Amino acid sequence: MAQCGKNWFQWGDSDVFRGFDSLNMDSKGRLALPGRYHERVEERCQGRFVVTVDLHEACLVIYPLPEWELIEKAFNALPGSDKTLALLRRRIVGYATEIQMDNSGRLLISPELREFAALEKEVVLAGQGKKCELWNRSAWEAINAKALSADFSSAQLAQAIDSLAL
Q1: What's the DSSP call for residue 165?
Q2: Which residues contact residue 24 at a Cβ distance below 8 angstroms, ignoring those fewer than 6 apart?
Q3: Which of the four pLDDT bands, split at 50, 70 and 90, describes residue 36?
Q4: In the predicted structure, residue 2 carries a pLDDT above the cut 50
Q5: Domains of the chain: residue spans and CATH
Q6: Strand, helix or coil at 19?
Q7: Pick from 106, 136, 107: nearest CA to 124
Q8: N or C: where does the chain have the smaller number of CB atoms within 10 Å of the terminal CB?
Q9: Beta-strand (E) ranges in 37-158?
């Protein structure tokens, strides 16, 4: 069912999502996490996640529930009178859906979220630190092609990259 590329996350002192996996989603919207992650996911978040939409791209973002709860707390502390923040909250929190890994190690992505990210059978999970993105395979390939031709030479970006010691 799942075709794994690199590990899509690793647990250490902090939750770190790294690399990517090419996976297949079934017609019901289920995708299987590789079995080697099940025990860690159960231990750290009892297999509970929150999936929401990305702010800038047509992909989904998957957070372990404890990480999402910190984000939601921060959203709740924002001023309610700011219309732009209300739009942001409506988009990110409004789409947020709690999901539970099933006994077979699968996550069920709702039809609404699948539609937002144009998810079909071939998907990619991409690690992004404390979260993971879920992409339509073609969209993932397109964004990577764009990254290959991007200009990373701006002074501000160059300074940030130098601070990472890449």
Answers
A1: T
A2: 1, 2, 3, 31, 121, 122, 123
A3: low
A4: no
A5: 2-164 (3.40.1550.20)
A6: coil
A7: 136
A8: C
A9: 48-53, 60-64, 97-100, 106-108, 122-127, 132-136
Burial state string for 6-26 with b = 16 or more CB within 10 A and e = fewer than 16: eebbeeeeebebeebbebebe
What single string gives the DSSP state of each residue in 108-135? EPPHHHHHHTT--SEEEEEE-BSSEEEE
Q: pLDDT tens-digit profile of 94-149?
A: 999 999 999 999 999 999 999 999 999 999 999 887 888 999 999 999 998 988 88
How many degrees, rounded to 5, is the angle at CA 129 between CA 125 and CA 140?
30
The type of residue at 52 is: T
pLDDT of amino acid 33? 79
Closest CA to 96 of 155, 51, 29: 51
